[in-house]
Design brief:
single chain, 458 residues, mainly alpha, 17 helices, 48% helix
Length: 458
């Protein structure tokens, strides 16, 4: 033991002390008359440790352990329950759950001064003193008199009127003919009701019709069952296959329209120049041919007598010309009248053919009407265009033959109930088709390197 202590600890002889004194660093002189050096150069660790210990004891036990008596800190445990209850009267140990919920802190909460202040305290005190004086004289205040009268009325058994807004009031349909709201209007003249604006407004028919005749929950095809037949499942797979084919065709069409053309179809400078000159050279050649024809075959100047002589714009017509024009107009009018009369005579012999035409026209109109009615009925089950977007049908929920299981427990869930209900509302024209709002940043993001992280290099 002696050897170990001599090796582990420094001996306190004079030689070692002199060596330590030589090795001591010179103490730094600090000016303690300044406030900033009070806490900086003063060791207060022992004081803080003591205060932490005191706070811990106050929280855990409710005070200093040294000040507590032994009876409050300990209890007798003999192992017999009845004997322990007698020995430790009033020291029954609570459950741990109750101890957790109890407040262990003995520090009182800060007093809220405003909660103890009563507004108009002096006025209320004066009113209370005055009321006591009046009661001593035998004078009862008005509110108490009313309360006593109400209690007396209840004791006599007089039925109190039920207020119109009370929960015990009778309910009625305001739209029915026997509504109590219409008692004053029964037997009144319709003109009087219209002028006094007391006549009931007629509910329009379109409010009673549904926006769509589709059922709220549509029954899926038999192929969507967890244990379908082979035929029904194949029919559902074919339907899903057609949907995918349609998508592929649309995608191919878009790629074909946006694809770069072949080298033969690419426009060059020569082809663009030919397109610009298209039709210009042909017109000039045609004009030259017309001029040559006019030179070879001149137009004859002889005019027949019946033809009207052209008159210059500035010249006045002669009386002979006016008479000739009048005679020609009269002839034309007579010929038109004779033609119409002959047509009417001929129509008498065409009654059968006219009846056949009318019958054919009526049948055609009836077919058109029937088609319109069928289209109108089919439109009641179709989604309408309520907004800028068109309704898009959901893809059918399909499971492949390998994914099918004959048990509901091992069935793989397909689709989403929330999406199905949302699309059902759109299909029944209750809400317009929507798409997810796209976040568009107004200003571009600006990346700034903070000064605190500039010096860090990895």
């Amino acid at each position: 033991m002696a050897a170990s202590t001599s090796a582990d600890f420094i001996s306190l002889n004079s030689a070692s002390s002199t060596q330590l004194s030589r090795r001591k660093v010179r103490r730094k002189r600090i000016n303690k008359n300044k406030k900033k050096n009070w806490t900086k150069c003063t060791d207060i660790a022992d004081v803080e440790g003591f205060l932490d210990d005191v706070r811990l004891q106050e929280r855990a036990v409710g005070g200093l352990i040294s000040e507590k008596s032994d009876d409050t800190l300990f209890f007798v445990d003999t192992g017999i329950e009845q004997k322990d209850l007698k020995l430790n009267k009033g020291k029954t140990k609570p459950l741990h759950i109750d101890l957790v919920l109890q407040s262990t802190s003995q520090v009182p909460p800060p007093k809220d001064i405003l909660s103890h202040q009563i507004p108009n305290a002096k006025k209320l005190r004066r009113q209370a003193l005055r009321q006591e004086k009046l009661e001593a004289q035998g004078i009862v205040p008005r509110n108490k008199r009313l309360l006593q009268a109400r209690l007396l009325q209840k004791s006599l058994g007089k039925p109190s009127p039920i207020p119109s807004t009370g929960p015990r009031r009778k309910y009625y349909d305001i739209w029915s003919k026997n509504s109590p709201l219409n008692k004053d209007l029964i037997g009144k003249d319709s003109w009087y009701l219209q002028q006094t604006k007391k006549q009931r407004i007629k509910r329009p028919d379109w409010l009673q019709t549904k926006p769509s005749q589709l059922a709220a929950v549509e029954v899926i095809s038999p192929g969507g069952s967890y244990n379908p037949t082979f035929e029904s499942h194949q029919a559902l797979l074919l339907k899903a296959h057609e949907v995918e084919l349609k998508k592929l065709k649309e995608e191919e069409k878009l790629n074909r329209q946006l694809s770069v053309p072949v080298k033969e179809d690419i426009a060059t400078e020569e082809t663009t120049f030919q397109e610009l000159c298209q039709g210009l050279l042909e017109d000039s050649e045609g004009e030259e041919e017309e001029k040559e024809k006019e030179k070879n075959h001149p137009v004859s100047e002889d005019t027949p007598e019946d033809r009207t002589v052209p008159v210059a714009v500035g010249e006045k017509k002669t009386e002979k010309q006016r008479k000739r024009e009048k005679v020609l107009k009269e002839k034309k009018r007579k010929l038109q009248a004779e033609k119409e009369a002959n047509c009417k005579k001929q129509e008498l012999f065409r009654l059968r053919s006219i009846k056949a035409v009318v019958k054919q026209r009526e049948e055609e109109l009836a077919q058109r009407k029937k088609k319109r009615m069928e289209k109108r009925e089919s439109d009641t089950t179709k989604p309408k265009r309520l907004g800028r977007l068109k309704y898009q049908e959901l893809d059918p929920d399909v499971q492949l033959s390998t994914e099918l299981s004959g048990c509901l427990r091992t069935l793989k869930p397909e689709g989403s109930i929330l999406r199905d209900r949302f699309k059902s509302l759109q299909k029944r024209n209750l809400i317009e088709p929507r798409e997810r709002a796209k976040f568009k940043r107004k200003y571009k993001l600006k990346y700034v390197e903070k000064r605190a992280f500039k010096e860090i290099t990895l």
